[in-house]
């Protein structure tokens, strides 16, 4: 896309374009909001935590729009319209980052957690893409990035539903690439590995142990994932459609003895 390109110093130069990053009040979402802002995009911060959202929006000089992605399809379409209004009538970049991951075994998963996880991880991306991608296609340019997960590719206890929803999102991204790509909208996925975020801070020892035998030998950081998202929006990635980039330290693709 011509509005976000590497400059001579291998940085990024951007005309002002507008990005909606779901779940951007902390972790990978907040890091992505910061990275895209640094690259010159205007980012709409969204999420459930008003305190964190207001603070990040003030830091970035932008707007915070509260969101609850567990709502009905009509609620999600209302949110998409509000986000479009907040971004002066056009969303050029959509980053599907928000996700729920109830860490329980299958028999213990509550009906409420089942419904909420399916709503946030699958229904919300589908409805928001349906609401926002057509306008991108009419303009002939735009980009959608799905934040997937390494867990979509392996069997892992206690996160079966999360893993399944992430696999669904990755497949949706491929289908959207085929559907909207010919009209100028690139759709790709960034799949993080075990990453240090506020949501798993209490489980840091588990994350460290999980990554100890990967080629990287350590957990990832939100900034590393955000860097990949930002690169996907540059001209350097202009030929990528329907791709999945594993920013996972080699946890899915490599084994160490």
From TrEMBL:
Per its UniProt record, what Pfam families does this chain match?
Answer: adh_short_C2 (PF13561)
Instruction: Tell me which CDD domains the record gives.
Output: SDR_c
Q: Which UniProt keywords apply?
A: Oxidoreductase
Could you tell me the superkingdom of the organism this chain comes from? Bacteria
Q: List the Gene Ontology MF annotations in alphabetical order.
A: oxidoreductase activity
Q: Does the keyword Oxidoreductase apply?
A: yes
By its UniProt entry, which SUPFAM superfamilies does this protein fall under?
NAD(P)-binding Rossmann-fold domains (SSF51735)
Family the entry assigns: Belongs to the short-chain dehydrogenases/reductases (SDR) family.
Query: Which PANTHER family would you find in this protein's record?
Result: 3-OXOACYL-(ACYL-CARRIER-PROTEIN) REDUCTASE, 3-OXOACYL-[ACYL-CARRIER-PROTEIN] REDUCTASE FABG
Q: What is this protein called?
A: NAD(P)-dependent dehydrogenase (Short-subunit alcohol dehydrogenase family)
Supply the source organism for this entry: Actinomycetospora corticicola
Organism lineage reads as: Bacteria, Bacillati, Actinomycetota, Actinomycetes, Pseudonocardiales
């Amino acid at each position: 896309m011509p509005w976000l390109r590497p400059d001579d110093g291998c940085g990024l130069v951007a005309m002002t374009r507008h990005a909606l990053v779901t779940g951007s009040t902390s972790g990978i979402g907040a890091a992505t909001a910061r990275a895209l802002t640094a690259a010159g995009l205007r980012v709409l911060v969204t999420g459930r935590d008003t305190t964190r959202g207001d603070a990040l929006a003030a830091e970035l000089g932008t707007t915070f729009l509260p969101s609850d992605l567990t709502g009905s399809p009509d609620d999600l379409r209302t949110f998409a319209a509000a986000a479009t209004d907040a971004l002066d009538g056009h969303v050029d970049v959509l980053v599907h980052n928000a996700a729920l991951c109830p860490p329980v075994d299958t028999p213990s998963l509550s009906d409420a957690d089942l419904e909420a996880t399916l709503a946030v991880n699958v229904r919300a991306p589908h409805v928001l893409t349906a609401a926002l991608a057509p306008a991108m296609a009419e303009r002939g340019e735009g980009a959608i990035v799905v934040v997937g997960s390494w867990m979509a590719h392996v069997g892992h206890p206690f996160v079966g539903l999360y893993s399944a929803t992430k696999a669904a999102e990755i497949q949706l991204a491929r289908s959207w690439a085929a559907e909207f790509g010919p009209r100028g909208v690139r759709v790709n996925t960034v799949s993080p590995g075990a990453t240090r975020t506020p949501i798993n801070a209490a489980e840091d020892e588990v994350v460290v142990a999980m990554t100890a035998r990967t080629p990287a030998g350590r957990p990832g950081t939100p900034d590393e994932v955000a860097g990949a998202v930002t690169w996907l929006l540059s001209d350097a990635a202009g030929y990528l459609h329907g791709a999945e980039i594993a920013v996972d330290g080699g946890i899915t693709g490599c084994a160490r003895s």
